[in-house]
User: Fold these one by one.
Assistant:
Number 1:
Amino acid sequence: MVINRNLLVFAFGFTLVASVVHASIDNERKPYIVYMGEARGAGISTSDEHHNLLLATTGDESIAKSSKIYSYGKSFNGFAARLLPHEVKRLSDEDGVVSVFANTRNRLHTTRSWDFLGMPQTAKRRLDIESNIVVGVLDTGIYVDAPSFNDDGYGPVPAKWKGKCVKGANFTGCNKKVIGARYYNLENIDVENQSPADLDGHGTHTSSTAAGTAVKDASLYGLAQGTARGGVPSARIAMYKVCWGSGCSDMDLLAAFDDAISDGVDIISVSIGGDSRSFFQDPIAIGSFHAMKKGILTSCSAGNGGPYPGTVENVAPWIMTIAATSIDRQFTTAFKLGNGMKSTGISINTFSPKKETYPLIDGARASNSSGDYYGNISACDYGTLSSDKVKGKLVYCLGSSGQDYTIKELNGAGVITSLDAPTDIAYTTIIPGTTVQLKDGYKIDEYINSTKNPRAVIYKTRATTMRAPFVASFSSRGPQLISLNILKPDIAAPGLGILAAYSKLASVTGYPSDSRYSPFNIISGTSMSCPHAAAAAAYVKTFHPDWSPAAIKSALMTTATPMKIKEVDAEFGSGSGQINPSEAVHPGLVYDINMSSYIRFLCKEGYNSTTISLLIGGKKKYKCSNLKPAQGIDGLNYPSMHAQLKSAGSKISAVFYRTLTNVGYGNNSVYKATVTSPKDVSIKVVPNSLKFNRTHQKQSFEVFVEGGSMQNGTQILSALLEWSDSKHIVRSPIIIYKPSE
């Protein structure tokens, strides 16, 4: 998801999330997805299978034909169709069907960041392998003509590539950098530009963050100037446009996953999410599961529901879920009052003042004298102000909710807004603007009341340094709501104030009345952190092409940099810490997870044998009762350890079973365990020393966590397990959570 106040329609206006797309009238057909598990073998027509199912369900040949929207069959099996309620129930009862769920709309989650992560342009690379890596991006489309996608010096398209480049309005084709581009609009909604072209800018930004080529002197009107580049600048990009002005529908997301897996992508980046759902009623969980089966890791944004607990999205354990953190740069905008008072606020203001000072007024004094309005005049709500009183003036408003657009419409010269709590998000304003703390707001108010001719000036934004990293306020927090003993988010990456490529088909703010168009833009959101992590995974994969998605994810998690600035929500905000791609190349040990482990985990989570057999495919039938039960409180060989107590008064008691695989190059390595924990908790690691004699050797251990009931006021206990052989440190956070009473 992108955090950009000026794209509120896209970032927060999706009122249809987790709601049925069409009216809920019992006799009206609504779009549903019928998910049927693993793809059928070669030579089997899934389209015929789907038609026959619909025919048996509806009892009418013409209805069966007209109701089907789309068949999935390249990478998994299923179809989208318009169904009546009784047909949904009948299909749900079919033996070959895993789930039937209503099509919903999901929301987008929207320089220097790679240097801050310890990955300078001079970082060691395997360019011969990196140039064959294809990063698949599911997003709003792409602007191929952006400088970040220049293909000078690129060799032929990788021979493995099976994808397509679909041309259309404002999109004349691909190149050797952007090698694939598709778009999806299965509901056939009325949209502008039926093509992979990016009319929003979000998809261009995320794509270039992951794999954009290096562009010198990149900036947004001089702000954040430097070399903009992706984490794997030699890699190729394939865009799958699934988001339009009304959101990103389930059926389009599944179609994109179906194609991307079949096309031959190596990593998938998805800066999209919605309300938590069970794994196999969630298109991103379904798509990423089948990607994982083919050796493809999916990186997903954690969501922008922070700082509130329990808001994290994209929580399936085979997904790498990414929180957003800061880098050591912030954007501050100074202002000066006519009495000489100077202070700074936070914003992205690209405008330099044309006058020494401007007349200053507040909302109350600029009110519409007719009184025919609803809203708060002090907050400068839409319709409350008079154009005659605002014209040519700077306006001071309480709160910060997009007043810059309102003031521009009234021909104002600029806006100063105030917040009663600190903020870390710098929004781009359509006119000169800054957001200040309320204490400065009081001084502005006092000044306006003290003189007959108040004046002020807002200066152009400057980039300044700050202490970092910390978890961005908007980044969604755990605990998750689906698998209660799996810690999410997994890891954190830069997502605050990120400069990257942008589409020249969209203005800087997204407003049609904004005349600024730039090849680069500064945006915040977990949408921005997600492609950072996807690129880091791709970077690790270039050194270890044979590693599983779980091994790559483990390497990134266990080598992550612990947060310098810890919030009260601890690892529920940052997971294992901030990514450190260079260290992840040589993690020493990894927590790997194979398919049989996932099967046992799903059994533990309550999925039945029939469902699991459909998920895995093939002739072999699985019975949970015949499998070795998943061990421990979480039932999975996960790089982090997390336990939720059953009730507020429960005593702490959890066991974690783990297996580490040696991926170091030396033999006869001895790793010793060190635990850092609160005094109220006893943590024992058995054994506390592991010896590895060869590469790929596995060694198992158990972690016993015991303690009394957690004291009133304490909900989170945070500990850390570190395995070290003096060359490597393999870190795993241990988190105990007490639910509210």
Number 2:
Amino acid sequence: MREVELGWGKVLLVKDNGEFHALGHKCPHYGAPLVKGVLSRGRVRCPWHGACFNISTGDLEDFPGLDSLHKFQVKIEKEKVYVRASKQALQLQRRTKMMAKCISPSAGHSGSTNVLIVGAGAAGLVCAETLRQEGFSDRIVLCTLDRHLPYDRPKLSKSLDAQPEQLALRPKEFFRAYGIEVLTEAQVVTVDVRNKKVVFKDGFKLEYSKLLLAPGSSPKTLSCKGKEVENVFTIRTPEDANRVVRLARGRNTVVVGAGFLGMEVAAYLTEKAHSVSVVELEETPFRRFLGERVGRALMKMFENNRVKFYMQTEVSELRAQEGKLKEVVLKSSKVVRADVCVVGIGAVPSTGFLRQSGIGLDSRGFIPVNKMMQTNVPGVFAAGDAVTFPLAWRNNRKVNIPHWQMAHAQGRVAAQNMLAQEAEICTVPYLWTAMFGKSLRYAGYGEGFDDVIIQGDLEELKFVAFYTKGDEVIAVASMNYDPIVSKVAEVLASGRAIRKREVETGDMSWLTGKGS
């Protein structure tokens, strides 16, 4: 792969099996340079977040993101490669796939729709867009509890100042143009599967032919004494995030929970707040997910940025002065000064409204689906953070993977199966986090790992960690080591197992080498 200058902009020139292809050079998701990505099996995978693009068409084949790449004309004459591209396409760097328009627009708030999608996160939006891309021209209604059109939720905890309009995944005109109706602040209270009908909190009833449930999850809250005091937040919406930043400026902030959300918030607030403290039950941050050694290295980075940790303890009381938070009391009897508290202790699936519906829920409230994202009720599909599904490359183990990329992929598979295309979910999970300007990338499913093999330098935060179970590598994480996580994701996606001994030697030329 090579980046080539064309006067009005650059293109990615790819030579694969003797054939030349020219494509947009930046990933439409967050603008990563694709030349630094991985070329394999006729596609290029983004080095930052793992999105995949077909080199023959430029089409998006795996997520995150919504748009594809422009494909440019290539001609070879007398050993020279000529690329022909329009100025506009070069400057745009993204291509929205062709979509059908809706030919049966609703007469106002009419009481029936062909497809109803509950939840407007990544799964819901990608489902709606996929239906239109596949030529579906009947009515689609997308309903959300939020007051906003679909937005980039992972940014909330990484950039708490971001305004709703900066986070929007598509402009208002997009939904109008393709006839995707969005009902905001619309809460479904019951689903009647026998009559194919849902009832909203305001009494509005809507009949459907096909239903996608993508309600996401709700943040867990503290159950300690004083939990009702003011200035204690979970982060679910742009308003929550904006309020936290506003109140934390120059004040004392306590973050409860050292998982991804808590640590991202703590990192973001270090330059804004007077002090930032993190309270966590485990002995190191991210321990269950990234292991002891990686967790400790990240903890040190936070401590170097003035973050104070209170580990192996939890909150026993929130104390107020005139109704507003003043102190956080820990079970270790330590009292921490706090004007603002952010709670990031996990989430539960938002599926309470389905309890009497006949749609299957497991003991934890998740919706079990098969590889086609179908529930136990015909015509009812589910996707996103609220589902458990069979993970193909881990022997179809039923798992819940509440990640942005996975929600995209599941939304697409649900749409394809609404159209009877018999698609199956087979993507390799990929996620990322960003703290203090450094990114950590992760691919695979590491639940139950029994060893971590680290190459590189943890102290310098330039490393790759392989998570193994028995003889097999089941996940990988890295910092400052691109594109290794995308490389491993491609190897796993191809169906090949990576053995522990292959990563123990320290010779990773088979992984880091250029080409395929």
Number 3:
Amino acid sequence: MASLLQDQLTTDQDLLLMQEGMPMRKVRSKSWKKLRYFRLQNDGMTVWHARQARGSAKPSFSISDVETIRNGHDSELLRSLAEELPLEQGFTVVFHGRRSNLDLVANSVEEAQIWMRGLQLLVDLVTSMDHQERLDQWLSDWFQRGDKNQDGKMSFQEVQRLLHLMNVEMDQEYAFSLFQAADTSQSGTLEGEEFVQFYKALTKRAEVQELFESFSADGQKLTLLEFLDFLREKQKERDCTSELALELIDRYEPSDSGKLRHVLSMDGFLSYLCSKDGDIFNPACLPIYQDMTQPLNHYFICSSHNTYLVGDQLCGQSSVEGYIRALKRGCRCVEVDVWDGPSGEPVVYHGHTLTSRILFKDVVATVAQYAFQTSDYPVILSLETHCSWEQQQTMARHLTEILGEQLLSTTLDGVLPTQLPSPEELRRKILVKGKKLTLEEDLEYEEEEAEPELEESELALESQFETEPEPQEQNLQNKDKKKKSKPILCPALSSLVIYLKSVSFRSFTHSKEHYHFYEISSFSETKAKRLIKEAGNEFVQHNTWQLSRVYPSGLRTDSSNYNPQELWNAGCQMVAMNMQTAGLEMDICDGHFRQNGGCGYVLKPDFLRDIQSSFHPEKPISPFKAQTLLIQVISGQQLPKVDKTKEGSIVDPLVKVQIFGVRLDTARQETNYVENNGFNPYWGQTLCFRVLVPELAMLRFVVMDYDWKSRNDFIGQYTLPWTCMQQGYRHIHLLSKDGISLRPASIFVYICIQEGLEGDES
């Protein structure tokens, strides 16, 4: 593939023109639009820009950081400048993670098309690379960086500088001996394949070689039976058959002769260990593997809070990009705060704050376009409506006209249901969550203009079931009560709320006596946590028949997050997160929803679905079986630098393992740090954890750079559910703070789970 990339760079007309460079306007806002010269570098993997055609250039972005390319018409910012800048000449570079989009406007439609086609071609090439091809490309990138004078050769001085860049502290004599061994042409420099051999010598995995030799009779190869023994004995794949072992040999053995003889070489063995099959995350949990035919309230649902915000809660920017990012990462419940806007058009923003405003109809159009790109399972629009009667009618019209067949506007069979439908039954449907008159009235309601006066009496009863306002709004609303009466609910909008009627929570007893399965209560994180402590089992039972949504405290004006685990422990389905904010809490959320095809729905454990459940998240008692987890943290590979600007600095890595679950299971341990080695550190330390409720446990592996003067610096992390963890010798491929792959950075571990004694009450 790397060679295919080189072929494309020398033959594809778009890529050839991109390598020559072109002037384009970089657009950051309505007032910031500057001309820059953009050029694709010769490696085909990075784009640089300069202020002038021959000026000093600096890196703009790497192709591996790009998710996709959008045309100008799909850019919120470029659309707002359509009168000034032609949309046909514009395009957007969309990055993985939370990095802001890059909006560019070319000098002509043709030039814009050249860049759009060329960039998408490169993104597709990078996306389709396998592990070995990515490694080849990674090596090629390092060679380019190390070859300071760009003559296609590397002197020993350049190699020494490269070792520092690569996080390697090595004895000069030993480094020179490796250099000489790789310099087969005896030219005093390393070229192409010689550099590859130097890298292989540098990355020789003694711990993997030792493991390989312990199962290989001759130390040269693993026969089919030897490999089968390894899979069953060490990888705990006790049901593994000869056919599966043979399939893995065919997949990972690089030599044709090895495949023919049904043997695995050391290179093939290492390739297997670094693959998805050798990953800590069980490949069986990657596709949709759970039962998707149970009622919605039996699932954890990936949910977003104030989805329209891409910054903080007070002055942050509102943007449809928030919805695009949330939906593309598998989020299935998005929030829409709607207020009266100018010219009769409702707007979305965080009320009573300085956050910017976007049109409600633009939000609905964005949801229509992106709802099912990542997952086919239903999307929930959580409406917080603060609009007048007239603008509620406009909202209803936009929802009906823009969403069309996607909008669920009646019960599935047209009659009053007895339980919530399943994700499977609601495939590719968008549901509205919000205030409602009564389900019975809405089934009879025919869309016709109703007199506002007639509805006031109907709403008198309903007013006691108001959605609980979020704290930052409550005080402002109390002040406003004297000035203005509560807006009347418009039946056209009410009729679109089918299964998710918002009601205020009073007590678990009140809910049992007065509420129905199609009603949903919202809780602030503070209230939900208090209820878990005071009445944990009642909360669990409540969540077996009704949906609950939890939202962050109004004091989190910086858009920080809470730990969702505590709420999942009580069976709360919709734990809304500020998805624009990276960190430990979002790592846990992302890790939890990485399973089941990333579809945004995860089936709750059976004890959180049983209406008679005796489970209490604060006091888990039998029949929950404790398990003991042994983790041998063996080694690390190609860990990135924390501060890339410091050429001489080399990390001192340590590994921290955290368990999140019920309170009694929450724990953390860490290894010692390895001094001055981010390239191939070796720890060889074993950590031990005892877990009472593994069905709810999450594991987070964090690699830190030890700093005795201050807090340790973050290098990378990986988080996954206990139930998706594979035993045996496994690689953990690290992710950045933003959840982006740091390949080839990884840690190598040995995982062993032992059944323990029954958990006792404590």
